[in-house]
Amino acid sequence: MCRISIVMPVYGVEKYIRDSVRSICQQTLQDFELILVNDDTRDKSIEVALNELQRLKTRFHYEVVNQKNSGVSVARNTGIKHARADWVICIDPDDCIHSRTIEFLDSCLNEYEKDYNLIWFDYQGVSIIPEEWPPKIIFPEIEVFSKEQILYSFLIRSVKLIVPAVLV
Fold this sequence. Notes:
By secondary structure, the protein is of the alpha/beta class. It has helices spanning 17-25, 45-55, 72-82, 101-112, 147-155, and strands spanning 4-10, 32-38, 61-66, 87-90, 119-120, 166-167. The chain is built from five helices and six strands; from the N terminus they run βαβαβαβαβαβ. The two termini are 17 Å apart.
């Protein structure tokens, strides 16, 4: 069984989901599962995602979970309920992740899994201007924070926690 589940809520993202799924398929460590939660999308988002997964001949387990349209938060929670791994990260279908993201998170788990139940990491917002792609990515040094330090930093707004940059 893998240690990490990726949950992706899907609704009306036909234009973006191909790139997001491709970034997941290009992970250097393929020991994870992908759960696509179809939030009753009206477009071809699920078809596009499945076509990309089949085209790239993925080595990881993936599945589609269908639900009536309930919004992104409920879709994430549905995906989390279906996750078989102990750790979950929610990636939105308009997000792309670096090819070493799962490898990086797995190495963090190797070192810190017994002591912590959340891994929060930095991210880089990028535009879709072709001249700026791909962005330069630097993996930071690992820092360990207490829950009090994280809460304080969040409350004074010196850090920004976003869903695709948190492994729980």
